């Protein structure tokens, strides 16, 4: 399933709805700080959070300038906040057409609209005539029944026509089948086929995953303290603030290692626990080094041990330590959170993504196709060449998942794919605007694009010792003759 368009607003700094075309693979939101790039990602995330945590709250999310007036009507008329347009893949269309006898074409799309009451409405329009033609060819029907169905434009009309003629036993069974289909549809003012198509499509609509700098792994954490926090929140959900992003990151690492906090009750041996966690660390290090080319001599080391001399809470029970070994410097190790922020971000993202995939797969979600990734300022702390490595990683991810990310770094924009760029600006009165107009935007906003193009040109200047710049192709042709 491909997301082709997202219309967002009013939402926070987006005062009026902004319709944004979404690339089938990668969409890049470029804009200055505080322009509203994160706002756009957050709106998408809250519509269908893969982890089922996020939702809309008008007090927090509706533009403040009109909030008071809106709250008066919110309960009765929750306003639209996001509208998606989706397009099924060829394989998905063919499967539905085969099952329902429809003829959904390659340009078929449908919309899903979300409102501030966290409800949604669906708009599907499928031609019912191919379905009626298939129904008229049902084996065993009498000639009168065939005539009644053939002359009907819809399933509802066919059932009405059949109720007005004498039916054979086979005709009666057929009519009962139509009645069941009619009763199964809650869309009383819409053709039955529309709802049946939606039932097929609803299982294919992707969910959203959002990742930012707040989800970074810490260098160490006390496992007893983490267990206490989890137990407190379980008994009193109002204290969920006790579970910080760093705790969720460590839980993600333990989850993909197949280690449970209950394993630290003294019954599981130290070697068993360490072997599990080290195994996943080796696997993740291999994944990082597939794309991380800045220093390929790094390894992640995991240790689990108590330290009664440390400060509270690290002096009570076992601590989990993450360290980085650098073979380039004779195996010197340093705490994970003292390494470069770029490496920390990259490794933390892989831990988070692998964990979420495993968590969702266990609940029946097809994680190879049913996820759209929302990345907020990815690779911000990476060196320019490392950002290029991460772009390669994003390209790899986009073969299975649509990726939407924000940036204001020229090295996170591919100069040969400016069609994927959307410009985000914060304008007086209008608030956040998002468009594909690269030339008519504020020069400060499109600076990363200009820099990306300049970087591409600059790369070619170092091909030889002496270089000559010319204005166009004609000058080049003249010099070459």
Describe the structure.
With 481 residues, the chain is α/β, with parallel strands linked by helices. The protein folds into three domains: 254 residues, 3-Layer(aba) Sandwich (Rossmann fold); 63 residues; 150 residues, no CATH class. It contains 16 helices and 15 strands. The two termini are 52 Å apart. The mean pLDDT is 86.
What distinguishing features does this structure have?
single chain, 481 residues, alpha/beta, Rossmann fold, six-stranded mixed sheet, five-stranded antiparallel sheet, 18% strand, globular
Brief digest:
The protein has 16 helices and 15 strands.
Number of domains: 3
The CATH C-level class name of the largest domain? Alpha Beta
Strand order of the largest sheet: 7-12-13-3-14-15
Using only C-alpha atoms, the radius of gyration works out to 28 Å
Helix-strand blueprint:
Layout: E1 2-8, E2 18-21, E3 26-31, H1 37-47, H2 58-61, H3 67-71, E4 80-87, H4 90-100, E5 110-115, E6 120-123, H5 129-136, H6 143-150, H7 155-162, H8 169-184, H9 192-202, E7 207-211, E8 220-222, H10 223-235, H11 245-257, H12 270-291, E9 298-306, E10 318-326, E11 332-335, H13 341-361, E12 371-375, H14 384-397, E13 402-407, E14 421-427, E15 431-435, H15 447-460, H16 473-480
Parallel strand pairs: 3-13, 3-14, 7-12, 12-13
Antiparallel strand pairs: 1-2, 1-4, 4-5, 5-6, 8-10, 9-10, 10-11, 14-15
């Amino acid at each position: 399933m491909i997301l082709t368009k997202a219309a967002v607003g009013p939402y926070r700094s987006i005062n009026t709805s902004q319709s944004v075309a979404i690339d089938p693979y990668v969409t890049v939101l470029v804009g200055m700080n505080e322009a509203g790039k994160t706002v756009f990602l957050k709106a998408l995330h809250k519509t269908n959070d893969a982890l089922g945590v996020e939702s809309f709250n008008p007090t927090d999310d509706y533009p403040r300038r009109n909030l008071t007036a809106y709250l008066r009507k919110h309960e009765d008329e929750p306003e639209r906040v996001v509208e998606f347009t989706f397009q099924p893949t060829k394989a998905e269309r063919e499967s539905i057409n085969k099952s329902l006898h429809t003829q959904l074409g390659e340009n078929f799309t449908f919309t899903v609209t979300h409102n501030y009451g966290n409800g949604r409405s669906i708009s599907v329009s499928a031609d019912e005539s191919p379905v009626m033609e298939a129904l008229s060819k049902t084996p065993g029907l009498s000639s009168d029944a065939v005539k009644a169905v053939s002359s009907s434009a819809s399933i509802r009309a066919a059932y009405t026509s059949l109720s007005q003629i004498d039916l054979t036993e086979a005709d009666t069974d057929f009519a009962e089948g139509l009645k069941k289909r009619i009763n199964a549809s809650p869309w009383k003012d819409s053709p039955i086929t529309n709802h049946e198509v939606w039932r097929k499509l609803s299982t294919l609509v992707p969910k959203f995953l959002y990742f930012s700098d707040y989800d970074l792994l810490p260098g160490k954490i006390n496992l007893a303290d983490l267990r206490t926090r989890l137990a407190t929140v379980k008994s009193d959900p109002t204290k969920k603030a006790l579970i910080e992003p760093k705790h969720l990151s460590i839980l993600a690492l333990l989850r993909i290692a197949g280690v449970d906090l209950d394993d630290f009750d003294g019954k599981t041996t130290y070697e068993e626990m360490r072997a599990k966690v080290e195994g996943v660390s080796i696997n993740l290090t291999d994944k990082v080094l597939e794309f991380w080319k800045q220093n390929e001599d790094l390894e992640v080391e995991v240790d689990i041990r108590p330290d009664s001399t440390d400060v509270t809470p690290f002096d009570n029970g076992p601590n989990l330590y993450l360290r980085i070994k650098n073979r380039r410097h004779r195996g010197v190790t340093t705490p994970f959170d003292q390494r470069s922020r770029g490496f920390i971000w990259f490794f933390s993202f892989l831990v988070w993504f692998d964990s979420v995939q495993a968590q969702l797969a266990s609940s029946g979600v097809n994680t190879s196709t049913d996820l759209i990734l929302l990345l907020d300022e990815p690779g911000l702390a990476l060196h320019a060449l490392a950002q290029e490595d991460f772009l390669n990683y994003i390209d790899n991810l986009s073969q299975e998942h649509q990726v939407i990310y924000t940036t204001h770094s020229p090295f996170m924009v591919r100069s040969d794919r400016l069609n994927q760029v959307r410009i985000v600006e914060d304008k007086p009165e209008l608030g956040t605007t998002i468009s594909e107009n690269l030339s008519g935007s504020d020069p400060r906003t499109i600076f990363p694009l200009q820099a990306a193009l300049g970087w591409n040109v600059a790369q070619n200047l170092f091909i030889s010792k002496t270089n000559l710049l010319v204005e166009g192709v004609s000058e080049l042709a003249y010099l070459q003759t």
